[in-house]
Amino acid sequence: MPLRALSLFILLLAAACTTEDSSEKLQIAVIPKGTTHEFWKSVHAGAETAAQELGVEVIWKGPLIESDRNAQIQVVEDFVTRGVDGVVLMPLDRVALVRPAREAQQAGIPVIIADSDLDWDGRLSFVATDNKEGGRMGGEKLAELIGGEGKVILMRYLENSASTTRREEGFLEAMAAHPGIEVVSSNQYAGPTIEGAQQTAENLLNSFSEVDGIFAPCESAAYGMMRAIQDAGRREQIKFVGFDGSEKLVAGLAAGQVDALVLQSPIAIGDLSVRAMVKHLKGEAVDARIDTGVVIATTANMNDDKIQALLSPDLSILGE
Q: Among 18, 69, 79, 137, which residue is least crowded by beta carbons within 10 Å?
């Protein structure tokens, strides 16, 4: 090759390498349980905030419906094939998602489990609320509201959903500490949609004419139950504690249709998960457990700055 041509080739190769290096970002797949509930929008906003500050790329993709295990498995498998640098997985089933998570790890892709646990010890870290403590706090609040005596209902969410199962366990432990309280139903599941939750709630209210308090362990279940209580005209007779916030649940709290909401920080779940993954990819140590906190919101404290930040999270980074 002539010297001049060789020089030109080297310059072009150097330019190409420089362009590639400057534009290449770490790609982190963030896979939620679903994408329709407001909770997941807040998780997404937290993940994007961390990504922009750290100069990495977050690829957000999850199933449309939170009961679609096969869809979430397929999303994980697709990202493994794509060869992303890391995966943050929020498994909708603590058992069914073990295999794809393990396959990602075996492909050399580190996996952080967030929001809801997985029956697998290969994760890099678990980033989530202390869900059992949140359920216990919700139970203690309900016990306080009904004066430590009466009949209560636990409307569960979805089988094999680790996060809500832990909340339900915490709630029942709290109830067991109050001998004057009887749990009259704890085996009915709301399912992943608001419509299904409202139908289950209506069936429960029709089955139990005497109910003093109700606990629902997630956003969709809480909203479905709130609507059912209102439609049945039983708001004055039933104290109601939900879990998570949404625009409609916050409005319900302000209007007195909900007595209390147990609040986690979905923005922190997304943010801290991405930050932990970037730390690991840069060779830094990461804590095996990262607790993102939990508080109780009531009409009395809902205007406090800390509570407001959780009730009305800033989603502007998503263009909302």
A: 18
